[in-house]
Amino acid sequence: MISEPSTISVVSPVAQQERISMLDSLRGIAILGILLMNIPGFALPQNQASDPSVLNETGLNFKTWYFIELVLTGTQRAFFSMLFGAGIILFLSRLEKKVPGYMAAEYFFRRQLWLLVFGLFNAYVLLWFWDILFAYAICGMILFAFRRLSPKALLIGALVSLLFMTLRENRDLYLDKETIAKGERIARIDTNSTKLTDQQKEDLDAMLAFKEKASHEGKVKASAKEVRNIQGRYDRLYAYQSEKSLHVELYYTFFLIWDILLFMFLGMAFFKNGILIGKASNKIYWIMCIGGLTLGFALTYLHLQPIIETSFDEYNYSKRVFVEYFQLSRMLRSIGFFGLVMLLYKSGWFKWLFALLRPVGQMAFTNYLMQSLMCGLFFYGIGFGMFGKLQRYEIYYVVGAVWIIEIIWSHIWLRHFRFGPLEWLWRSLTYWKKQPMKYSEQVKESKQTPEPVS
């Protein structure tokens, strides 16, 4: 058997010629697209990010919100999750051919644990409270157990995840309905003749707190408080953002885990059956595109209408609707957009676009964290302090500027280096060995690397 030191010497990150260029291009699309979804969280108070009624937004601002919600919300993270799922298969299948026994698993779990650390860095140093890396690290370790399943079994796993996530959505809805119903019943009691019990007082207070938080006045007050904290000193900013990060990390890990697993399962299945890398027929992609977008847009429209008609009042919205199906609509739209992207790729007319975005995807990890750094410096009080100062449509100018920077710098960097700087660091930590960074170092390394010993 090969010893561990020898194993380390023959195991290295994927070489340039081994990369699947289509996956890099898709990562480029996803990493740039995810900023479209994240920018409201960087630029606007959290409740205003998804609610234009806080500042009574109309005209172009409202149309911008509506377009993002109807068309794009949730799709880019879905793409990223699918590609992460495919990456699990790629990483492990390659390693399991090269190393014996448990070593492939050791490298994989080391990789995931370092990703978890990077997620904590993003959340508590760069102060990006919507970090997804922490949850990806945990979900990836869970999916290790499912890596050998057939595409059919993985698709069943995706459907089970969709079912559980939909049940979770509706459980939350009906808990809110119960809070409202109990409180309103108690509010009708004549307290002059009937003394409320302690439990009734708690139920009434819960209903009133929910109603206050959902009211326009309550949202304006919360929004103003957030602006003061984000634009304040570092200690104030850190305390406020880190508290939000803790809530989000716990919420993703314990409540939205099915959301992430759903698309990772899909990515693993689509990679195994060739759909993710363009090997399926055009007919399959047309079905995905037309079916997914038609049904997805229809369901999303029906989801948004009661939100708008109740003036974004969560209290009245919860009383009105009877079922939540956001995850289903999001999955359909995501599959539809994926089908569209693959049709563009297979048409051959957009080779220039996929080539343009390939280096961005090859440096997706670096570019994701760079978005946190650049947007944090631009919007937070410790930087340029633009938080809450731009109109909704104006924040997408910032997105365009970040896109241009990341496209240009990714192309320049990869002309000289094998990896992005954080990809290099992640790989070096995973293999517990400094990886060759420059192309000349790769040639030297390959000459010195011994053949594996059986």
| Total number of strands | 0
Main sheet properties? none
Low-confidence runs (pLDDT<50, min 5 residues)? 1-10, 445-454
What multimeric state do the chains show? single chain
Q: How much of the residues is beta strand, in percent?
A: under 5%
Tertiary shape: globular
**Termini distance?**
5 Å
Radius of gyration, whole Å: 24 Å
Q: How many alpha or pi helices? A: 20
> From the helix content, strand content and strand pairing, which structural class follows?
mainly alpha
List the helices and strands and how they pair.
Elements: H1 4-10, H2 21-43, H3 46-49, H4 59-72, H5 75-98, H6 103-124, H7 133-143, H8 151-187, H9 198-214, H10 216-230, H11 234-254, H12 257-272, H13 282-309, H14 314-320, H15 326-347, H16 351-362, H17 364-379, H18 395-416, H19 421-431, H20 439-448
Question: What's a concise summary of this model?
Answer:
This protein has helices at 4-10, 21-43, 46-49, 59-72, 75-98, 103-124, 133-143, 151-187, 198-214, 216-230, 234-254, 257-272, 282-309, 314-320, 326-347, 351-362, 364-379, 395-416, 421-431, 439-448. It has 454 residues and is mostly helical.
Description:
This protein is mainly α and 454 residues long. 75% of the residues lie in helices and 0% in strands. It is globular, with a radius of gyration of 24 Å. The termini are close together.
